[in-house]
Write a structure and sequence with these properties.
Length: 224
């Protein structure tokens, strides 16, 4: 996609949310919007809260797991499986992976209350899975992506706790250091679909002209 076309498309992004949803955006386009917004927001916060100063190795692990692993696996998963699968696996499985890693890496014991709460979550996951998973036989590839993304976030959560890193430096460090490398890669990526955004709002989307859709499936999941 030519750079000029991409720049003009970026300037039109807020014009028509429904047109964006129907344009068939690539998952990396969604990620680029996320990284650009997070990077700019983190710079503003760092100006007031201070620059995150973490050890290079720990910062790299945070970027790989929270900065790249979770969002990229999730966005790619939404392009391969229905949004309902992401709702089940992304949110539902995270407590189990986090609890398991906490036991292995932090020595945390599963209390009775935690066991009961995880059991309730498991029942909810089973009910949602029974209702939705049989309708899309080929969606297992997206389910694998959701699982990998969920595991990446669980690793990040447990390691940050083990290292004693606060939420603010971990979040700012992830947003600041993950954004620029990805945006450079995306700028050179040949399959971007940002140029597909119409110049003018469509007549059928007057209710969505004010903002973009806020969920990744609206951009990159053609399967419903």
């Amino acid at each position: 996609m030519p750079a000029r076309s991409r720049r003009s498309s970026l300037g039109r992004l807020p014009a028509d949310g429904q047109a964006v949803a129907q344009a068939g955006f690539h998952a990396l386009d969604v990620a680029a919007l996320r990284y650009a917004g997070a990077f700019l927001g983190a710079l503003v916060l760092a100006a007031f809260l201070g620059w995150p100063r973490l050890p290079p190795l720990k910062q790299a692990v945070i970027v790989l797991t929270a900065g790249y692993g979770f969002p990229l696996f999730a966005y790619h998963g939404f392009s391969l499986a229905p949004a309902a699968h992401g709702a089940v696996l992304n949110a539902g499985m995270l407590p189990f992976y986090t609890a398991a890693l906490g036991m292995l890496l932090l020595g945390e014991r599963w209390t009775r209350a935690r066991g009961v709460s995880l059991g309730i979550v498991a029942v909810g996951i089973a009910l949602l899975a029974f209702d939705t998973f049989g309708e899309h036989p080929g969606a297992w590839r997206g389910d694998v992506m959701f699982t990998l993304g969920c595991m990446s976030w669980a690793v990040y959560t447990v390691l940050v706790r083990r290292w004693g890193i606060g939420a603010i430096p971990a979040t700012l460090g992830s947003a600041i250091w993950a954004g620029p490398p990805f945006l450079v890669f995306w700028w050179l990526f040949p399959a971007s679909n940002l140029g597909a955004l119409p110049l003018a709002p469509s007549s059928s989307s007057s209710s969505t002209r004010a903002s973009l859709p806020c969920s990744p499936p609206a951009f990159c999941s053609p399967r419903r």
